[in-house]
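Sync notes, pocket subgroup
Present: LS, DG
LS reminded everyone that the earlier model was apo-only. Rerun requested with iron/sulfur cluster included. Inputs:
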Amino acid sequence: MPLTREAVELLVQAARAWYFDGHQHGLRDREWMALRFLGRANRFSRTPSALAGFIGATRATASQIVKTLESKSFLVRKPSHEDKRSVVLHVTTLGEKCLNQYDPINHVVNAVTALGTDECVKLRDSLREILNHLDAAHQRLDASICRDCMFLAERSTGPATGRARSTAEFFCRLYRSPISLDETELLCTSFERTRDRPTIVKHLDRAER
Ligand code: SF4
């Protein structure tokens, strides 16, 4: 079997871990997907419409999933700070606990962690590169982090010391809002890829260590 086909088939087998029939710990696979996304999404993407786009569902289906998660106290709605007519979905402490303990992808996360940091970074970069190709071919990308987004700009140009690292601030030119260093690691459905972001990548890579 050609190497590339073998690699793709292994990737598909690994992905099957998060698709299943019925329920696991009280949630269907799409409900897990929604809870997982909302647990990692930034404040601009924790909305019913962004959720619908991410899970590939209609607004009505996404709304039903939100109701299910609310009924289990895994999620609450709060008015948006940016737009009072909109709501932002927040994963509760109970929802976070459920994700930490029972998320069906946790055993995949553990297996990837066991590879060690260097292999994990290689795997992440390879998968990101594959998604870039798919994105270019199909003109879509569900969500990604600020690191490679064309809308991210640096606000501070201080020296690259440990102190600068902890206080580094960024700005989203799309939403015209400040973005903290921690927020740059969260998922965003408005992401637009750029490949030319060397200074910011340097900051963010230091933050990972
Ligand atoms: S910089 Fe890009 S990824 Fe980050 S919040 Fe703005 S649009 Fe989203």
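DG: The first strand starts at residue 75 and ends at 79.
LS: The mean pLDDT is 85.
Action: DG to write up.
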